[in-house]
Amino acid sequence: MTEFLIARNPEEGSTLPFLLRVPLGPDGIVLKAKETWPRTGKVYCHRAVGWPREPDIVERVPVRSCVRRGAAIDLVLDRGRENRSQFVLTRIRGGREAIFWQTARTAKQARPAVELPTARAAGVRELGIVVDSHERYAWTFRHQQATTTRRALPAGDYAVELDGRVVAAVERKSLPDLVATLTSGKMRYLLAHLAELPRAAVVVEERYSQIFALDRVRPAVVADAVAECAARFPQVPILFCETRALAQEWTYRFFGAALQEAAAESGAAGRVAALPAATAPSAAEIRAWARTNGYEVPDRGRIRADVLAAFERRND
């Protein structure tokens, strides 16, 4: 029977103490890993040169299934617990390969169970967002009420404009990209360019706590660098937004608020479509509108997302 093998990494001084032999293909795939199973979070893996001739086996488990589906390898082991996992193969900036080992549980922890709102950002009917032409795998803002156009930006990966002038920009970072930018010294130049704009921010698609789970660089070095950037450029905050979806949502809301403020400062509020009223509608007002328009809503508690969406579209 095909087996999934875990052995000790014979490489001295390695921060990845285990070797994994994934039974895919004629010779299998050999990876270095920090853990023997992704129990509390995703486990970073790195390709190894090969499997040792006399491996120090830690665990040997029969395999029920090992199949590659696109950028992922689904592994099912023949045991009662800790039997299903997935290796996700991706590439980070610079084209370097990154492999993450996860289970359904750890993947869910990385994607908080939240329902994103459908209301317009700051009441703007349709937000026009400029995406830098060099941005790879760009956010699409499909969930939000926004449109995107691509062209070169002087700073940041995303921006909004008023009267042809950039009034706010966001630089997007994955955690590996953030670490590389901080440790290379490039972050200071990036923040200096962003600080020249009226409003700007750096948004990271990860939790701040994951800095302290880094194993290829000292976590304290990265944490100190983030703190130094915040002290040196307080006008350009660095936000840790957990996931890609939440980072995109924060950026959308930030752009709506920034556009509203810029319009108020320049006296151009009339050129920003559908700016919000002074106060947001209350739950009672939304319930009254919903009942008038044939929707069933409870007297108390949460109002359904489809009702809120219909309320937002009521003047379209």
Descriptors:
316 residues, alpha+beta, eight-stranded antiparallel beta barrel, six-stranded mixed sheet, 7 helices, 14 strands, 28% strand, globular
Q: Kindly state the percentage of residues in helix.
A: 25-40%
**Which strand-content bin applies to the residues?**
25-35%
Could you tell me how far the N terminus lies from the C terminus, measured between alpha carbons in angstroms?
A: 62 Å
Largest sheet: 8 strands, antiparallel, barrel
Radius of gyration: 24 Å
Taken from the alpha-carbon principal axes, the silhouette is: globular
* N to C succession of SSEs: EEEEEEEEHEEEEHHEHEHHH
- Which structural category fits the helices and strands? alpha+beta
Please give the number of β-strands.
14
User: Average pLDDT value?
Assistant: 85
Side by side, the strands of the main sheet go 1-2-3-4-8-7-6-5
What is the tally of helical segments?
A: 7
Low-confidence stretches: 273-279
Please tell me about this protein's structure.
The structure is a single chain. The chain contains seven helices and 14 strands. It has 316 residues and is an alpha+beta fold. It starts with a strand and ends with a helix.
